[in-house]
Design brief:
Blueprint lengths: L10 E5 L3 H13 L3 E6 L3 H8 L6 E2 L3 H6 L4 E4 L6 H10 L3 E4 L7 H14 L3 E3 L7 H12 L5 E10 L11 H4 L3 H16 L5 E10 L2 E3 L9 E8 L3 E9 L7 E9 L2 E7 L7 E7 L2 E6 L8 H12 L9 H13 L4
Parallel strand pairs: 1-2, 1-4, 2-3, 4-5, 5-6, 7-11
Antiparallel strand pairs: 7-12, 8-9, 8-10, 10-11, 12-13, 13-14, 14-15
Helix pairs in contact: 1-9, 4-5, 5-10, 8-10
The chain binds nicotinamide-adenine-dinucleotide.
Nicotinamide-adenine-dinucleotide binds next to helix 1.
GO molecular function: nucleotide binding; oxidoreductase activity
Protein name: Oxidoreductase
Pfam families: GFO_IDH_MocA (PF01408), GFO_IDH_MocA_C3 (PF22725)
Length: 336
């Protein structure tokens, strides 16, 4: 018998139960797919709130204490600067890891995490939640069918007109970057995943902070960024993302792909962060192929729990896609 297979519900520990950590904990609890054993957050009030959904879970003070307990997997949702080191500590102890994005602040950090997961042969996933929306699943099936012909254009947009509300997001050391690290990371992940580890060249980008062009993010993080890149020497990709853009709506989110036989486009509806529609374009006409209505936020976490339960705590080489995406982000940031 394969001893890595978890025959009961996977036993889980949550580290960081702020906004997104509590949201994912609630999703796992409501679906009753995992046994939430441990919760840890320096904010005692947040830990208490999390216990509402995980009755009987133990609160501990640190990741090292969490790891000493009998858990199969660790779910990390702390500020971004902590992700790589906390993931490495959990993976080194043989625990499966589900980490919030970004997995690291640069490609070197991401590489260290993915290589640790490979070395220990344990499961590592990142919460790239948009992969799991019905709208992106519909877009991917059109793309994979080949019916768009030769693809030549991709347009990726993520404007969060509110911007983040916690101070650590604006500290380059704690966040690793601004809107590119926060929102562009999802777009670049989708690019790498949809186009199956493409070759990327000719990366050109401009970053801005408070309306002024900036050359690096050592002092202040970018709140507006545009980038152009070439995929597989044949596809032109445009990326734009921002915080606090006067966009006239809460959010503008788009993944559009154009080919010689038509297009497909995933967009948010009425400025919503949560509702998406996907349309198939034929010349000047269009048809809706996916409408709003799915509750997708916790699906990546549930997929990781399901992999752990059904396939076991084993390394999934698809984790190298996280490194590919981080290398593209380094180029957008013009890191040497
Ligand atoms: N996948 C997504 O779509 C998505 C969406 C939102 C946020 N995120 C990511 O999730 C992470 C958290 O974002 P948030 O908005 O929930 O932030 P948050 O500030 O609400 O939550 C972070 C939590 O971590 C806790 N924390 C800080 N240091 C800790 C430590 N050493 N050990 C344990 N807990 C610690 C804080 O007390 C806080 O409760 C960020 O990296 C963000 O990029 C991902």
């Amino acid at each position: 018998m394969d001893e890595t297979i978890v025959d009961e519900k996977p036993r889980l520990g949550f580290i960081g139960v702020g906004w997104i950590g509590r949201n994912r904990l609630q999703a796992v609890a409501e679906q009753q797919i995992g046994d939430i054993r441990i919760v840890s957050d320096p904010n005692a009030g947040y830990a208490e709130e999390a216990l509402q959904y995980a009755k009987g879970a133990k609160v501990v003070d640190s990741l090292s204490e969490l790891i000493e307990n009998d858990v199969d997997g660790v779910i990390i949702a702390t500020p971004s600067a902590l992700h790589a080191s906390q993931s490495i500590d959990a993976l080194a102890a043989g625990k499966a890891v589900f980490c919030q994005k970004p997995l690291g602040r640069d490609a070197a950090e991401v590489k260290a995490v993915v290589e640790k997961a490979q070395e220990k042969d344990v499961l590592l996933s990142v919460d790239f939640s948009y992969r799991f929306t019905n709208g992106i699943v519909a877009l991917k099936s059109v793309l994979d069918s080949g019916e768009l012909g030769d693809i030549y254009g991709v347009n990726l947009v993520f404007h969060n007109a509110y911007g983040p509300d916690k101070p650590w997001y604006f500290d380059p050391k704690l966040a690793g970057g601004g809107c590119v690290m926060d929102l562009g990371v999802h777009l670049v992940d989708l690019l790498v995943w949809l186009f199956n580890n493409p070759e990327v060249s000719d990366v050109n980008s401009q970053l801005f902070a408070k309306g002024k062009k900036i050359e690096d993010i050592v002092e202040q993080v970018e709140d507006y960024a545009v980038a152009q890149l070439l995929l597989n020497n044949s596809i032109a990709v445009q990326i734009a993302c921002s915080w606090n853009l006067p966009a006239g709506v809460d959010a503008v989110i788009e993944v559009s792909i154009y080919g010689t036989n038509g297009g497909v486009s995933f967009k948010n509806v009425n400025g919503s962060f949560y509702d998406f529609s996907t349309e198939r374009f034929h010349g000047t006409s269009r048809e809706v192929i996916s409408s709003p209505g799915d509750s997708w936020g916790g699906k990546a976490a549930m997929d990781w729990v399901a992999q752990l339960a059904e396939k076991g705590n084993k390394f999934n080489p698809e984790a190298f896609q996280y490194l590919k995406a981080a290398e593209i982000l380094d180029k957008i940031y013009k890191r040497k």
